[in-house]
Each structure stands twice: as C-alpha cells, then as structure tokens.
Design brief:
Chain lengths: 362, 362
C-alpha cells in the first residue's frame, strides 16, 4: 500500500514486526502487534488503522474502538476473517452458501460428522491458520487428536470446525471493496490455482465462466460485505463444485494474493482501492486494462536461492512480464514475489508467466 | 522512482535537501547536493548514483567518477543537460537540428544577433534555468543588462546563449531511455502545452502527428542519446515549426514532466525505465496501455490552497482520473501534483483532465 499512498498524497505509517520488513520504507514503529500498548501507541499516530493481515487480536482492536480510534475494517467485521467458526455461523445466518459444516469439540462429535459426511472431511482450527496451515483432511478423529488434546484448544477458538470435503471443479475468488459510505466495487471473479495449499496462479477472469456464475459470485461477495459491514477489501474464496454451485471457503479483509493482478490488470489496484475504502474516499474504477491478466506467485525453491541470478535474463527474454520482488530473504515455499502478465488470451499469458518463473528459478 | 524500485526489488536511497521532501520515505541522507563531502558520503552507500534534477555540480560528479563510482548518466553526458551552450555546440557537431544560435558575452554581440535575427530573440543563461527561469525574450541587449553586468556571469557559464525566436506551431517532446549496454527504447512523441513557461498539459501521442515526423523525433532523440552516451532517460524538448521542421529546444536526462503520463499510459513507466537503464537492466516495453493519454499538471493556485478540499468530490465526479499528489506545501505556480487520463480520444481525455483539475482548484 506504500506506493499508492504516495500517489494519492496520503501519509502512510506502518507498525512492523521487524525493522527490515518489506514495509521498511514506511515503518514508523517496530513492535509486537499482539501487545496492546504497542498497537495503541501506533494507532494514536494515525487517523485510521487498517491491516495487511488479520492477526491483530480482536480484544486489542475492541479497546481501540472504545477509545474512539477508527479501525477499518471494524473488529466486528474482522472477527469473521479471524475466526472460521464465527464466519460459518454468520454466513449461515445471512444465507450465503457454505459446505456442510459443524462445530466440534470432542472426538465423538467429529467421528459422527465423518460417518455422515465422510469418508474424508476437512478439519480447521478456527483461528490462526493461513496458506494451508491449521487445515487437515482426515478420515478419523485420531488424525487431529493432537488438536483435540491441546490445552491451547481454548485459545484456538474453543472448538474445531469440521466441513464436508467438497468435490470441486476449481477454486474461485471474488475480490471487492466497500467504504464506510456503503459504496461497493468488485473486480472480475478469478480462478485461483493452489499447490500444497498455497496459491500458485491466479487467472482473471476465471476462464470460461458463465455470466450467470460471475453475477452470482459478485452477489455473494456483496451480501457478505454488506451483512458484515466490511470496510476495505474483501476477498471471498469459493469452490465451484462439480454440480456448478458456488460455496464460500474463506474470507480475507485486506489486499489479498488473488488481487495482485490488479496492479497492472485493473484501472485501480487492490492496494489503492483498500486505501480509498478505509479512508471513506470514493472507490476507483475496476475495469480491466486488458481482457486477461495472469498472476504467478514466486515461491522460494530453496533457502539459499538467488532470485536475482537470472533477473536480467528473464527481463530480456520476457519483456512483457511484470516482476515484483518483495525484498524478503529466500526460504523454501515462501512467497518472495510474483509475476503478472496482461494480454488477450489466457493460454498465452499463462505460458509466458510460467516461462518467466521457470527461468527465474533455474 | 521509489515505487518502481519497490516493485523491482531494488533498494533505493535518496540524498534529499530536507527531511520532509516528497522522497522522505527513501531518504537516507539529508544534505546539500553542492557539497562534495556530502555527495561522496552518499555515493559510497550505493552501487549506482542517478538524479531527479540536473543541478549537482559537474566538478563533484567528475571527482566521484575518478574514484570509480558509477554515475549514471555520466558527467560527460550530463554536461549537455546542465549547460545550454555545451548542448548547442554538441548538437551542431552531431547534426541535430537547432534554432539559429550564438554564444555572446557583450551587449554589442547580442545586439548584432538581434539585428540579424530579431526583432525578438531568446536569451538564456547557460546553466541554472528551469521552468522558464533563466530565459528572456528580448529585442535589445538592455533587457539583459543585469545578466551581462553580473559579476556572477562567469558562474552562469561565462557567456550567454542567444537563439532566434522560433515561430512554432506547437512544442513536442520525445522521451527515450538508453542503458550502458546500448539498448534503446522510446515512448510516443508527445505534445507539451506550456503556460507562463511551465508545462501545463501533455498529450500522448501528439495529436495528428505524421508518422514521418514521429520517426524523425525518435531519430533525433536516438542520435542525441547515442552521440552523448546518455544512460537513463533522455527527454528532448522540440519545436514543431510552422514550416514543419523539428528543432531541439532543451534536453533533460532524468524522469521528466513530459513522461508522467507513462505511469498509467505505458507498459513501463518512465520511472521504472530510468531505474532499469541506469542499472544496465534490460529496458521495459513502452507500448501504450490505451490509444491516448493526457497529463495535466496541478500548479498551485495560491499559497494557502487546500488541495484536499475537493479531493473526494473529484474522485467521485471523475472516477476515470488518476490523481497524483506530491505531498509538497502549496505555493502559487508550484507543481503540486498531476492528473492522468487514458482513453480512446484526446478531446475526451483532455476535457476530463481539465474538468477534474478545475474542480480540484475551486
């Protein structure tokens, strides 16, 4: 968000965990985001606070709000991105489509669910998971006995979430933004491809999607953002089932990996839009710059990788590619950057992005 | 350049005159760019030094180069952007088209030139001018008697440059980039419109320009950048004369006001391209994003202007407009930001940009 803040003439300050984070340029305070005094000190230095992850403890945000500090999205909304059980309950209440799910806190309850909806089910810790962490596909409660026996289960939300294992054709994501004034804007629904539970590629728009399903995706995202009072970005990750249904999988309320393509692919990037939305400015246009955009994540291939070794070769071989590096130390599987290609057809864009990524990693 | 450096994973450091400059985020040293020790200390902290203005004294840059520091563009090239007499002599030698000009150091020499090429001529101080400063249209040497009598004339270059006053149809600018490897890339030639000697609007491409003249503009820019060994951006400001000739007016070797439209209007912005070029990375593509781009400068309308007063109204009335604020204090005539509109036809883009600017200023 630092770059669009600069463009918009907005002063941005960052509370970062370390001095050398990718947000170093705008870091004004280094400290622990789970420490109330740290977050309060930071919050008092700005007009509005917002997030690039959802892990700031809700209790801290609630105390800030009680002191009159503008937290966007609010703790009330953010609760649904922090806690998957809270999310499932709210989705059910508003009528948004979920996989079959249940709150369980004993092996017996879990095994009953497996009997009914198995043989395999998906068990999730309600809070703290991301990029596939805190999620297990199991066929018996024994496979999460460590979670069930964990004295920390209370801190994980008190119970576990179990969901049917959905047979899906592919995964989609609908990114949108809403400001406190109630203005709403959405980007095209995208296809997200995962490897080992981590986003690998994003195709915008989702190839061959029907206009009916596109409209349905926006309708679901709008229902959620309005029902929960979301301000800023909302990413709704969904399954497109083999039966042609959409089921909500996860929510995020911040700039999201499924929207990185918007930097080059959209009239307004998700980063600028999130800033506009949390500041209650009018939202920017979300028209695509070109018919298609493809984003490919650069995931660390080793702990000693030299990302820059082939940098100029790739720039030269693939001049149409936009490479983004986050300035993070390499680590196997870590998101170190991404590549975006815009164009007229998805096959060409995908081939180009993958070609560039392969050359960078070699 | 801070934003594209972030994207490319390049660490950027800035020597700034004040702590609160628009480059504050990346400022690592505050000091005087005319002080050798200050510039040397800064230069030793980076791999390559480059510029966002051309006023660092040549003698300092030459000393850095003697110490093996990579200065891009080199002092040899930059001399031609710093000193208009040096430029005119080099253009003549390489065969690039200039207005009729002469080096003069006495009233007599100047009046002779006026007799031959008047009634009006343009007198310029060889160094230190920008945005119309250091330039006078005169019909008698008395009108620059202060310059001629100035004991500082030596520091202004030792003599004055006098040029015929060209009857021109419009002003054009050709922006291009070249890296030390010799790779060359150019953007479309643009029309630049000035008010009181300051750039007011830029239209890309220059409306109704013939393909012959477009090619000629690139040919001139390429000749200059190669003859002078320019690295980084080169902006060649030109007159299109009433006779359909192109004559070179000024040179700049850095991101230039005539190229701000490239942020939204081009596959690669001039800021990213300048970084790539000075780092000897392959140059990015310069294809236009949309057929037309129009840039309108936001010049301060008073010293107490509140630029943000109508910010949200303008965003709402003109959602297709990209507003850039530089975070500078308002001052009458100061460049405080700019607006870019991309689209299919220049009239619509221009009307939109001017409408948004008027609303911001009201």
């Amino acid at each position: 968000m630092i770059a669009p803040a600069g463009k918009l003439g907005i002063e941005i300050k960052v509370l970062a965990e370390t001095q050398d984070s990718p947000a170093a340029e705008a870091t004004t305070l280094v400290g622990d985001f789970t420490d109330f005094e740290t977050v309060l000190t930071f919050a008092k230095s700005v007009d509005v606070i917002t997030f690039d992850h959802e892990h700031v403890p809700l209790a801290i945000l609630q105390q800030l709000e009680q002191q009159g500090i503008s937290v966007q999205p609010s703790s009330r909304a953010l609760a649904h991105a922090q806690n998957k059980l809270v999310m499932r309950k709210a989705l059910e209440k508003m009528g948004a489509p979920s996989p079959i799910w249940k709150e369980v806190s004993t092996a017996l309850e879990l095994d009953q669910f497996i009997n009914e909806h198995g043989p395999e089910v998906v068990v999730k810790t309600p809070i703290g998971g991301y990029d596939g962490k805190g999620v297990r596909v199991v066929s018996s409660s024994e496979q999460v006995s460590d979670w069930l026996a964990d004295p920390m289960l209370a801190s994980l939300g008190g119970s576990l979430l179990v969901e049917q294992k959905v047979s899906f054709k592919r995964e989609l994501a609908q990114l949108c933004a809403r400001n406190p004034n109630g203005d709403f804007a959405s980007w095209p629904v995208v296809e997200t491809r995962q490897k080992n539970g981590v986003c690998s590629e994003v195709l915008s728009p989702a190839p061959n999607i029907s206009s009916e399903m596109s409209r349905e995706a926006v309708k679901i995202a709008r229902l959620i953002s309005e029902s929960l009072g979301v301000t800023g970005n909302l990413a709704v990750e969904m399954f497109e089932t083999n039966q042609g249904e959409l089921l909500v999988n996860e929510l995020a309320m911040r700039p999201h990996n499924s929207g990185h393509f918007t930097i080059e692919g959209s009239a307004t990037s998700q980063f600028e839009q999130h800033l506009r939305a949390v500041l209650n400015l009018p939202l920017g246009k979300t028209d695509p710059i070109r018919p298609v955009a493809v984003m490919a994540n650069l995931l660390g291939v080793s702990n000693s990788q030299d990302l820059l070794a082939n940098y100029d070769k790739v720039m030269s071989s693939f001049p149409e590619v936009n490479i983004h590096f986050y300035g993070k130390a390499p680590r196997l599987g870590r998101k170190l950057g991404h590549i975006t290609v815009v164009g007229d057809d998805v096959e060409t864009c995908l081939r180009t992005a993958e070609g560039a990524r392969n050359q960078l990693n070699n």
